[in-house]
Amino acid sequence: MRRSYDFFSFFIIPALTxxxxxxxxxxxxxxxxIGNSEGRRWLFLLWGTVTGNYVYLYTKxxxxxxxxGDRLIKICLSLSFIFFLCGIGCPYFPRKTPLLAQMxxxxxxxxxxxxxxxxxRFVGLVEEKEKMNLTRERFFQLGTAFVSAVLYLExxxxxxxxxxxxxxxxxxxxxxxxxxxEKIRLSNH
Length: 189
Known about the structure:
- By secondary structure, the chain is mainly alpha-helical.
- It is built from seven helices and no strands.
- The chain has helices spanning about 5-20, 30-35, 40-65, 70-90, 100-130, 135-155, 160-189.
- The longest helix is centred in the middle third of the chain and has 33 residues, at about 100-130.
- It starts with a helix and ends with a helix.
């Protein structure tokens, strides 16, 4: 499998994320508000485009490499990508355009949910195919969902802190999943 994703996982996406959030109190403001403020729209669009494409392409390649893709994974992954790009593209100005702001919120929520379903299903198919338990991978994914829920409930809204946590966790998870799949592939040959 190609290694080009590591550079994005550990350098490009974190750098763009830190640039986008620089100077803001992340527990009090979301990336959507930051990205729709004066002078940050271009950075928000760049961050969203790079991150969305990275997650989609990396996950798609992992499912091909693991030879465990099915219709549900493909549909959920495609929906995740579409929802993510819609969330990034829809402006978030609740007072000026309330309908678009609501669409932004729901598509931004639906994207990660579809990605979660896609990856959870993929790990299940790998377990079936390889006759092994991927407990660490399941624990990491469920743990990320749990911590995300706690952050949301503690802060009371989607925050930059939550978005940063999900972004970094996804980067780490995909890289760890690739490493595990490569180990499985090597042990089978």
